[in-house]
Amino acid sequence: MERLPLETLESQNYDVVIIGAGAVGCASARQLAGRGFKTLLIDRGDIGAGTSSRSSRMLYSGLGYLVAKYPLWQIPFHPHDMMQRLGYTAEVMRCRAELVQEMPHHLTKHTFFYPFRQADQYAPWLVNIGFKLVEGLGGWKVPLAYRRIDREAAEKNSALVAALDPQVKSVAVFEEYMYAWPERICVDTALDAEKRGATIRNYTEVIGINKITEHWNIQLRECAPEKHGLANVQAKIVINAAGPWVDFVPDAGGENQKRIIGIKGINVMVRLPEAFKGQGLEAFSRKGEPYYVFPWRDFHFIGP
Ligand SMILES: Cc1cc2nc3c(=O)[nH]c(=O)nc-3n(C[C@H](O)[C@H](O)[C@H](O)COP(=O)(O)OP(=O)(O)OC[C@H]3O[C@@H](n4cnc5c(N)ncnc54)[C@H](O)[C@@H]3O)c2cc1C
Q1: Which residue CA neighbors atom 15 of ligand 1 most closely?
Q2: 130 and 243: one domain?
Q3: Which of 53, 72, 78, 118 has the fewest CB atoms found within 10 Å of its own CB?
Q4: What is the pLDDT of residues 171-228, one digit of tens each?
Q5: What range does the domain containing 169 cover?
Q6: Eight-class DSSP state of 276
């Protein structure tokens, strides 16, 4: 496909300009174009090449979102927070079902184990309720197939369980999906947005935004190798979907309000014995945060 010079966009009027063609930007463009809005999706790099290509690739079912920062007995004193958590988990499960039904070819299904350890922060009965609640909130559309079994029974079918600490007396088994290539999902979504009428422009950076009466003026700069050019476009609405860079989009209107804060984390990739292939583990760390061993092709990666 011919790449037109950036200047061809000069003075074009859009209903919406979306900055960032990651998972959020591509999905927004698809939705908005489908609803008839004249949409421009911009990325300074390639589609899906930001955070969306660097995730742990799990189509997460949302157990961790149920975990509150306060003790269980305080739940009645935080009804709004708990309702939000339940609502969010239900939404996550709804989106999970939508993806499994719409894009099965982009997903791989894996068996995950949850080992029950004596010193665990969450009692087995609580974990049982948590998983069942997550399944119920999702309306059992794409079940987790959660069940708790004795270690002895589980070991017969899983070398991974057999290798766990002898203190683990029972495990839960459930099914999780992983994205084969999340960036590919972004590309497909962007192409679908284009089919619905959106204009997609990668290797184009937003270098300034300013408000002119009722409209926004957005300054664009060509970033493709050995290409140069500038253009201004106008839009009624600007969506800043720049992921971890939202605070760096020039004049994004944040009045020095920082939206992104950093947290430390690490994922370690290892090659485990062949018999462990395709199976994963989920547990909670001592800080009460979900912790995983993710299967990925011939490898596993371990992290939060
Ligand atoms: C370590 C890690 C593990 C994760 N694991 C999972 C997981 O297992 N499952 C899951 O569902 N989610 C996971 N996530 C979360 C998920 O990856 C993100 O929520 C998602 O990718 C965010 O997408 P985005 O579109 O907001 O951002 P991004 O994908 O980062 O997209 C932002 C885009 O904006 C562009 N951009 C920035 N500034 C400009 C500018 N000035 N002009 C033009 N373009 C610009 C960038 O080039 C980039 O492409 C994980 C995240 C991390 C960091």
Answers
A1: 55
A2: no
A3: 118
A4: 999 999 999 999 999 999 999 999 999 999 999 999 999 988 889 999 999 999 888 8
A5: 85-179+263-303
A6: G
**Strand 170-179 to strand 107-116: parallel, antiparallel, or no bridges (unpaired)?**
antiparallel
Whether 175 and 186 share a structural domain: no
pLDDT in tens, 39-73: 999 999 999 999 999 988 999 888 888 888 888 88
The CATH code of the domain that includes 111 is 3.30.9.10
The CA-atom distances, in angstroms, between 235 and each of 106, 148, 238 are: 34, 54, 7
Q: Which residues line ligand 1 (CB under 6 A)?
A: 19-25, 42-45, 49-52, 55-58, 60, 205-206, 241-245, 249
Q: What percentage of the chain's residues is helix, strand, coil (to nearest 5)? A: 35, 30, 35
Looking at the chain, the number of H-run helices and the number of E-run strands are 7, 14
Distance of CA 255 from the midpoint of ligand 1 (Å): 23
Question: Amino acid identity of 292?
Answer: Y
**Residue 195 and residue 288 in one domain:** no
CA of 33 to the centre of ligand 1 (A): 21
How many whole angstroms from 78 Cα to the centroid of ligand 1? 31
104 and 162 part of one domain: yes
